[in-house]
Amino acid sequence: MKPPSFAYASPSTLAEAVNLLASGNGNAKVISGGQSLMPMLAFRLAAPDLLVDLKHLKDLGTITIGDDGVRLGAKVRWCDIENDRRLVRSHPLLAEAIKHVAHYQVRNRGTIGGSLAHADPSAEMPGVALTCDGEMTIVGSGGTRVEKASSFFTGPLQTSLEPDEIVTELHLPAWPATRRWAFREFARRKGDFAMAGVLLFYDLDHRNCAVDAHIGAIGIADCPIRLSAAEAALNGNAVTEDCIAAVAAAAKESIDPPSDIHAPGAYRRALLGTLLARGLQHSIS
Amino acid sequence: MKVSNSYVGRPMERVEDLRMVRGRGTYVADVNRPDQLYAVILRSSVAHGTIRSIDFTRALELPGVRHVLTAGGLGDFVPRIPVRLQSLPELEPFHQPVLADRKVRYVGEPVAVVIADTAAIAEDALEHIVLDIETLPAVAGREQAETEPSLLFEGHGSNTAITWRACLGDADAAFKSADYVRRERFKVQRHTAMFMEPRGFVAEWNAVAGEMTVWGTAKTAFYNRRVLAAALGLDEHAVKLVEVDVGGGFGSRGEFYPEDYLIPAAAMIARRPVKWTEDRREHMMSANHSRDIECDVEIAVSRDGRFLGLRGQIWADIGAYLRTNGSVGPRNVAQCMSGPYCFESVDLRSSMLVTNKTPTGSYRGPGRFEADFARERLIDIVARDLEMDRLELRRRNLVADSQMPYPLPTVTPFESTNELDSGDYHAVFDRCLAEFKWEDRSKLRGRLIDGYYHGLGIGSFIEGGAAGPKEDARLVLETDGSLSVYLGSSAIGQGLETIMSQIAADAMEVPFERITINHGSTDHVKDGYGSYHSRSTVMGGSSILLAAEKLKELIRETAAKRFNCSPADVSIDGEKVSHAGNHLTFSNLSDIPLEVEASFFNSKHTWAYGTQAAYVAVDPGTGHVKVIDYLSVEDVGRMINPLTLHGQAIGSIVQGLGGTFLEHLVYDSEGQLLTGSFADYLLPTASDFPNIRSITLELKRCPNNPLGAKGAGEGGIIPVAGVIGNAVADALFHLNVQPNELPLSPPRLWQLIEEARQ
Q1: Cβ separation of A189 and B281 shorter than 8 Å?
Q2: Which phi and psi (to 5°) does residue B269 adopt?
Q3: pLDDT tens digit string along B297-310?
Q4: Exposed, middle or buried, B200 (CB in 10 Å: 0-12/13-18/19+)?
Q5: Predicted confidence (pLDDT) per residue in B279-299, tens digit
Q6: In this structure, are A190 and A93 located in the same domain?
Q7: How many CB atoms lie within 10 A of CB A39?
Q8: Cα–Cα distances in Å, from B542 out to B137, B468, B521, B655?
């Protein structure tokens, strides 16, 4: 388990990093925490010619909380999110979801930029970005662009990133204090990739009915997905037992999870329904 | 200073720990020799096929690549690895060649060895070896082994290597006359030991002296030396195997594997030291797998709940070859399925099937974990059918103290009889129930609380230990008065140095600190058998006791010459010898070290035994099982060190829970191993099962060794799957869910619940 040989650079500016990536002809990879890439190198599943290490780049490690929401620099680590007490109020869904990311050692190194770019279908961070209408700031040879999470994740371990592009920031819109929310996932062991996970939030209108429902799921498809049928079943309704059952049923009907060695698709489907129902139950308690 | 009987039985902290936690341990990966090269092994990625050609010319052209070794380069005869335990001539065709010889039979089978300046270069070189294999249909499991026309060993004519049979009494008669009969199928999935430090070797060939030194041996150094010397064509005494620190064994590490030959052979060919360090992916496909047992068993019970008979068929999927201890598990399943209970008759057949998977061998509690799962589940199923209390059903059938020694079924061929040595099984059973507060907690059985169904499970077990034939110890009273102990036993993380120091200090009545334990390496004693079958404490410890008596004799003789008296008139008082008012201390007794050797011979196994209980809660929505409380009560005859034993028990139970819920080596129908890392092979971590308790008792000493101790390193793991299975079935009693297949993963349990609800 030795990686194949590669060249290594640790530029001190973003522009330099982008130039290095552009010079790699599609065979250069960004590395930061290395929690996804290093195992892939060790197994020789990835064999880039060049690794561009972001460790000397400044300014990408900040968590900014303002009226427009939360901005997470690409080098923000899971432990930074865990340790930022402000987020429990400013973005409770994010704070809760990140508690479930891997184990202590991984959380000390893994970064949100790495997780978004790696785009594992079971990972929490892409789920948060998608469910919360997050937007990625992306810098490449062509300049800076902003892309919505909904078009960023394109398949298993696939994103819309060009080979010379780097995710520099994730923006999550502002979180009203009265918002109802829940995060639920279930893994074989705590910290493992979830066999299914659900992220949800909604607001209550004057009639105490759910509006603006956002329901996302991880671990049940090629990439994180929004459960629009379930959102439709929730919107405009009071969150009662019957409503919860209807939302869960709509969600289960709308998905077709794959099977792997850890769980058959049928189990993942049922599990998602269970987690969604329990999450909704929790959101009203 | 005289210290009497003060160490054995005391919770002494491990003398090994300070060295380890300070990073001062020397593991084989820490061993480096001048001018050393590195070996990497090309392993088959095809499960079953015929090798057409291996072309390594391009690999040899890579800068830094020194040699490539293939079966063709080993001469006319590719060495085969002999079987260490239960060796039979009819099993020889199944012995593994050290490199794939014309055929590959499993994914991971060594095909070539690349020797290069660095391990990275050697790994690069693997990609330049062109291996042309004509693929044959893979035999990937029991059904294929029995029905698929594809044969692993064409000359044998079938994929069944051998069928063992365990018999006691007349089972057919018992079943004919029984009031009640129940037949069930049970499956225990393939999983195995995942010791923390993977295997590795450094080998150095001294061409001038004709001597081979190998670092990295474990478990059975002396046996492995014989095998290696024979395979290399060397005299046994020209081969030295050195044991360094070892990060866990659990039955798998230290058996003779292909690499045990390949790395020394590489050093001979390269004429430079060669190092190989296994990585985890490699470990998962090359070190022994284990378990992988299916059984179809039937129990006969009288109207009043007496066990009349146990019969049926067991299939053990042993993988592609018969490894050194590959028969142990399959035989044990048959011999130990009746366990601590009086079955009037037993007739079990256990067939070893060869398949295109990694070969199997012993893993902690081999065969017993599997057998106990079947038996303890079966007993609960019987209790349900007969509407009997499952505690009462067990009490009615546990072997009684007055029945000891009690015979176990006899296994043939390679006939072995065995008997339970001593024990008060009923007392331990009742103690477990009391400590567990079984009666109080029974109120919770089957209840749904906060979304979880609650249930209790119980199971009793026996644990064999102390395999013979003997173990050797050499005791040396050094001229400075300290004592050096040299042992044939091996340290595999079980605290051997601590325990043997306790025994030696008590035997010689000297302070613990005066003892140094040397173990494992082949130059310490003439012969040795090593550490397996929970034998080190009993066998190594007893040999120390015998050696201590001889050393005291020698000390008396030596002192007698100095005192001009008869040895019988010399008294030893701690580190002081005296006669008629004259005294000498051990440190001024002799100008040369005083040295004795002794062997302890033993033909009878020790049988520790116990009962375990579990309290679980089952989430029907996810299939998740919470282990709320887990208790083990075991009688080991005599405890040498309660602290290390407690650690062994807890660790063993956690491994059992891993095998019950998590661990699974998964193959697809083409014989590809799908679990190649710890992301997919799920080991229990330190935080997964926090609620485990263990109580160790000293009720009945073993009558067959001077220590009175019983092997106790494996017990914890043995009944875990049965106990948990019973607790889960109890929680879901209203649904009649019967978990008879492992692992009890959330999807499997969810599936059972769904099926029961329909």
Answers
A1: no
A2: -70, -45
A3: 999 999 999 999 99
A4: buried
A5: 999 999 999 999 999 999 999
A6: no
A7: 16
A8: 52, 12, 19, 29
- Using CB atoms, pick whichever of A2, A261, A264 lies closest to residue B680: A261
User: Which residue type, as a one-letter code, is found at position B688?
Assistant: D
Strand ranges, E, within B466-514: 470-477, 483-487
Give the per-residue pLDDT at A1.
Answer: 66
**Placement of tokens 């009720």 in the chain:** B699
8-state DSSP, B81: P
Rounded CA-CA distance A54/A62 in Å is 14
- Say if CB B218 and CB B246 are below 8 A apart: yes
Residues in chain B: 758
Lowest pLDDT segment from B190-204, B349-363, B408-422, B724-738: B408-422
Closest Cβ–Cβ partner in A43, A188, A190 for B746: A188
Quote the minimal CA–CA distance from A156 to chain B in Å: 17
- Inter-CA distances, B395 with B67, B379, B464, B499, Å: 65, 12, 22, 35
Give the integer Cα–Cα distance in Å for B464 and B339: 10
CB B590 within 8 A of CB B476: no
* Model confidence band, residue B731 (pLDDT cutoffs 50, 70, 90): very high
CA distance B320 to B325: 14
pLDDT above 90 as % of chain A: 95
Q: How many CB atoms lie within 10 A of CB A144?
A: 12
B703–A contact, CB cutoff 8 A:
no
- Residues in chain B within 8 Å Cβ distance of A4: 124
**Is A254 part of any domain?**
yes
Could you tell me the fold of the domain covering B290-466+604-757?
Answer: Aldehyde Oxidoreductase; domain 4 (3.30.365)
Q: Per residue in B25-48, pLDDT tens?
A: 999 999 999 999 999 999 999 999
Q: Which has the minimum average pLDDT: B288-292, B468-472, B674-678?
A: B468-472
Q: Which domain holds residue A100?
A: 63-173
Whether residues A1 and B124 touch (CB distance < 8 A) is answered with no
Residues in contact with B18: Cβ distance below 8 Å, sequence separation at least 6, in sequence order: none
Q: Which tokens go with B271?
A: 């004429």
Q: What angle do CA B390, B393, B395 make, to 5 degrees?
A: 110
DSSP 8-state symbol, B99: S
The average confidence (pLDDT) of chain A is 96
Length of chain A: 285
Residue B373 carries which side chain, given as an amino acid letter? F
Looking at the fold, whether A185 and A276 belong to one and the same domain comes out as yes
Res B507 pLDDT > 80:
yes
Contact criterion met (CB < 8 Å) for B279 and A1: yes
Q: How far apart are CA A17 and CA A23, in angstroms?
A: 10
Q: Give kind and range of the element (H or E) at residue B162.
A: strand B160-168
> Number of CB pairs < 8 Å for A and B?
61
CATH number of the CATH domain containing A237: 3.30.390.50
* CB–CB contact A263 B119 (8 Å): no
The residues with which B614 forms a beta bridge, in sequence order, are B457, B630
- What is the CATH topology of the domain spanning B31-136+198-246+253-286? Aldehyde Oxidoreductase; domain 3 (3.90.1170)
* B424-435 per-position pLDDT tens digit: 999 999 999 999
Q: Which residues pair with B471 in a beta bridge?
A: B600
Distances (CA, A) of A264 to A210, B267, B622, B674, B745: 32, 48, 13, 15, 12
Is pLDDT above 80 for B148? Answer: no
Residue ranges of chain B assigned to CATH 3.30.365.10: 15-26+467-601, 290-466+604-757
Q: Nearest residue of A to residue B122 by CA position? A: A2
pLDDT, one tens digit per residue, over B734-747 is 999 999 999 999 99
CB B262 within 8 A of CB B99: yes
pLDDT value, residue B489: 87
